[in-house]
Each structure stands twice: as C-alpha cells, then as structure tokens.
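<context>
A single protein, sequence plus fold
<entry> Chain with its tokenised backbone below
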Amino acid sequence: MITIKTKKDVAILREGGRRHAVILRELAGMVRPGVTAAELNTKAEELIVAGGDRSAFLNYRPQGAPRPYPASLCVSVNDEIVHGIPNEGDKILKEGDIVSLDLGLVHKGLITDAAVSVGVGKIKPELERLLKTTKEALMAGIKEAKGGRRVGDISNAIERVGAAGKYGIVEELAGHGVGYRVHEDPYVPNYGEAGRGEVLKPGLVIAIEPMFNLGTHRIKLDPDGYTYRAADGKQSAHFEHTVLITKGDAEILTA
C-alpha cells in the first residue's frame, strides 16, 4: 500500500535526511587504500548513535532473507552491487577499487535511505565514467519525480542514461517507497516505459537508486544471503537519494 506522509512526518524526514547526508559524507571521506569495511561500519554506528538515532539496516530482515542483516552499513566493493556485508570476513579496500556505501537511518521513528559510490585512491577512467554516469542517472530520475507524473517516467529517465552509456542496467533490484518502513510501495525500477506505473502524488516519499554494471545486467546472490554481484565479475556503481514528491520538483531529503 502506498502511503502519503503528513507535514509532521516530512519535517522529521527532512531533519533525518540532513543527518543522513552528513554521516554518508564523513564515511565517504574515510575511503582510502587499507581501510576495512568493518572500520567503515563501526564509524557509521558511532555517528548514528552520537546523533541519538539508529540504523535502519541492523537486524532488518527483508522478505525472503535467510537471516537479519548483521550490520549498520552496506559496503559493496567492485563487482558487489548492493548489500555487501562489512563485518563478516576481511574486506580491505585497495587502490583502484570502487565502493558503494549504503546507509539507512531511523530518526524519530522515520526512515531515510541513501547511497554513494566512490573510488579508492586513483581509479581507471572507465570506472570514473561509470560512477559519473550512474550519478547522472540518479539526478535524471529525480528530475522526472514530479507530482502528477508516473513511476515509469523516473524509470525511463534512468534507463536512457544507462543505455546511452552502454552499461548493464540492473533489473531485479530497484528503488522503493520509504519512511514508515525500509521498503514500502511503490516499486521504482531502473528501467521502464514513460507514462506507466503508479501516479506520483505529493507527500509520497521514495528512494531512487540506479545500479549500473560495467558489463552484463545479470546478477547473482552470494551464499551470505545478501550480497548481490554482477554475474560477469565486472564492477558496479550505485547511487541513491530519498526524495519527497511535491507539486513541482522533487525535494531531495538526503542531499
């Protein structure tokens, strides 16, 4: 069921989104060769708790998942698309890697969701382009997220950017409604036909999150039950914002 947030809800989500952005920015600034995913997760937990908030991901169990998620932050490196677990096994960032940092924050009972992908040290030009294009796709999707338009307008805008870059556009994973729960309706795919899908109504809050692979669009799930990878082992990028639908341009709550 699609939910429309109240003015009180939106005020809380704005405040939570600002906190969320600060935490993600600090985590992204920590990324360098030799840093471990576990260190990034620990820092995320420290920053969340310091603000009096809590992680939306820690112990969250999505439908169909074999167990609750064991960390506060998703750290996905290179061919890992999303949901990389940072605190099980050694995951050390190396020069030339790219890494996605995906954080869910609960502030006063309401949830925001955002992610950023960054390079570790000096990365190859093809990876710089992958990051740049995926971020551009996010902004193209947000530009279409206006009241009265449809989910398909967002999806089609993202798909056109990915197709122009000749990237593998991940189809099985998508954006979603957010706020009262981590995952709400509507489903917001990264491909689709403009003018189709649910109508975007003012007060709707959604997480838009393009995921582009350097090679194939096909994906596979690791035995850990959470980490999705590009099936051909090539790198993937992921960017995400929580946005509020208004009568005009969408408001980015996690900017």
